[in-house]
Amino acid sequence: MELVSNFIIKLNESDFILEKRIKLLKEIEKTGSILQAAKNVPMSYKSAWDTIDLMNNLSDEVLVERKAGGKSGGGSYLSEYAKKLIITYEKIEEIQASFLEQISKNADYHSGNILNLQRIAMQISARNVFVGKVVELTPGVVNSEVVLELKSGVKIASIITKNSVENLGLEIGKEAKAIIKSTSVMISSEKDLKISARNVLKGKISKINEGAVNAEVSLDLGENQILTSIITINSIKNLGLKVGDEAYGVIKSTSVMIGL
Known about the structure:
By secondary structure, the chain is α+β, with helices and mostly antiparallel strands. The chain folds into 2 domains: about 10-105, Winged helix-like DNA-binding domain superfamily/Winged helix DNA-binding domain (Arc Repressor Mutant, subunit A, Orthogonal Bundle), CATH 1.10.10; about 130-260, CATH 2.40.50.100. The chain is about 30% helix and about 35% strand. The chain has 6 helices and 14 strands. It has helices at about 20-30, 35-40, 45-60, 80-105, 160-170, 235-240; strands spanning about 10, 15, 65, 75-80, 130-140, 145-150, 155-160, 175-180, 185-190, 200-210, 215-220, 225-230, 245-250, 255-260. The strands form 4 sheets. It has a 5-stranded antiparallel sheet. A hairpin with a 3-residue loop joins strand 5 and strand 6 (about 145-150).
């Protein structure tokens, strides 16, 4: 029996760099194309973009940037920060491999201790995860309003129970995550809406992926932080949305989950 393990680089307590994400970054660096990189990993083109958006959302610095087309054509390339992350990951990987080899030689696999170990991890289906700091905390009798400020300066308000605030140990200045399902994000082409939703986030449409019935709209909030929404194709047509347009992501505060 041999002991093997993949390691994860965490950022703000979130899984930030995984083996497959490193492979994607390497392929982007090699090919200059997200489409080709996705094929080489392999993963779907959509999954590749989702991964890039998630990493850019969690990172203090941009990892993947796009170069506009010209005589030599457009493409995608890694930032210097991303290249350094890859080097760091590879160095740790070498040290880890040596460490695990020594453990494998000396571990007693038949004691039951190692055989019963397993990694416990939480997987969430929510498409949007943003890291920010608590800048406002307004307690109520039952619920409390928590406001996070993202690195782009955008503020997201959430209504959660007082018990949740206590259990998470939330306080002003503490880092936390705003978690939002893409189906909970409405899109508007106008800011001044008469609507009860607490969050109206301004951005620029960076991508529209159309399906048979629904479309995925990606809204760049600044600092390469991408808010993703799922709306109907009819809504796209009725609003006249297209890439490059200014638009607003509208989210009820009760639809924003808070995590650490």
